[in-house]
């Protein structure tokens, strides 16, 4: 924890030095200059509302992308015939720019949350499927044979044999996924929503208000860091514990 605090402190020190060298608060204000705009936006309820809307989209997109991606990746990793069939699709979607999918979803579905979340999910599913597919390919056949010998039921085998081996891959996909998903959500909101952090950044960008752009950006980064440190990293340590036991 001390190392993380020192690392963040060095980042703020770099920011302060850059602001001094820039010597133009309208381009790069000092960190403490954001306290007033942050307090005013928070007190008005504007900041919590837009943070909540973005977080709601992130949670839905993350849940759907992980669920569908894990299922597709596991099937592709365990069944070579399906893998050969779906691999070209995976390559296409991995290389399809996020902006293209966002624009197409808005054109086809409309400027609504269904289109926004669909675009984010379609962008993230291929990454999750790719990681989980490698985990499914690496499953220990001896453990599977042991489960078969002991006539374990399907659900029991999935819980006690398959999931512990896949867990590190799932967590890796989740950690990279949450970082990518919230960034894409901001782009989705920037382009076609009427609320959320991305929408507010677009609004203040049009007003050339760097301070408020930084307030909204840093506020949501703080939320995502809290998710990473308080949830994802403890889960990762937990799922890796059995390997060292």
From TrEMBL:
Query: What family does this chain come from, according to its entry?
Result: Belongs to the binding-protein-dependent transport system permease family.
Taken from the UniProt entry, a GO cellular component term is: plasma membrane
Spell out the Pfam families in the cross-references.
BPD_transp_1 (PF00528)
Residues that span the membrane, as ranges = 32-51, 58-77, 89-109, 161-188, 208-232
Looking at the keywords, is Cytoplasm present? no
SUPFAM superfamilies from the UniProt entry:
MetI-like
Q: Where in the cell is it found?
A: Cell membrane
The record places domain ABC transmembrane type-1 at: 51-231
What is the species listed in this Swiss-Prot or TrEMBL entry?
Roseibium aggregatum
Tell me what topology the record assigns in the membrane. Multi-pass membrane protein
Provide the alphabetized UniProt keywords: Cell membrane, Membrane, Transmembrane, Transmembrane helix, Transport
Q: What is this protein called?
A: ABC transporter permease
Q: Which PANTHER family match?
A: ALIPHATIC SULFONATES TRANSPORT PERMEASE PROTEIN SSUC-RELATED (PTHR30151:SF38), ALKANE SULFONATE ABC TRANSPORTER-RELATED, MEMBRANE SUBUNIT (PTHR30151)
Lineage at the top is:
Bacteria, Pseudomonadati, Pseudomonadota, Alphaproteobacteria, Hyphomicrobiales
């Amino acid at each position: 924890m001390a190392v993380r605090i020192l690392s963040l402190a060095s980042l703020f020190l770099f920011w302060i030095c850059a602001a001094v060298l820039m010597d133009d608060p309208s381009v790069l204000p000092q960190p403490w200059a954001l306290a007033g705009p942050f307090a005013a936006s928070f007190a008005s309820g504007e900041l919590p509302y837009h943070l909540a809307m973005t977080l709601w989209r992130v949670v839905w997109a993350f849940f759907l992308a992980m669920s569908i991606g894990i299922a597709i990746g596991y099937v592709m990793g365990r069944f070579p015939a399906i893998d050969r069939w779906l691999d070209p699709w995976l390559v296409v979607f991995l290389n399809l720019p996020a902006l293209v999918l966002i624009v197409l979803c808005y054109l086809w579905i409309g400027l609504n949350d269904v289109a926004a979340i669909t675009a984010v999910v379609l962008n993230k599913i291929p990454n999750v499927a790719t990681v989980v597919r490698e985990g499914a390919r690496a499953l220990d056949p001896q453990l599977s044979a042991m489960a078969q010998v002991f006539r374990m039921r399907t659900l029991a085998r999935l819980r006690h044999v398959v999931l512990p081996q896949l867990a590190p891959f799932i967590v890796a996909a989740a950690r990279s996924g949450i970082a990518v998903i919230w960034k894409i959500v901001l782009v989705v909101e920037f382009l076609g929503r009427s609320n959320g952090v991305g929408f507010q950044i677009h609004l203040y960008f049009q007003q050339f208000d760097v301070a408020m752009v930084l307030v909204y950006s840093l506020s949501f980064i703080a939320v995502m860091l809290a998710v990473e440190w308080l949830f994802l990293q403890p889960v990762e340590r937990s799922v890796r514990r059995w390997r060292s036991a």
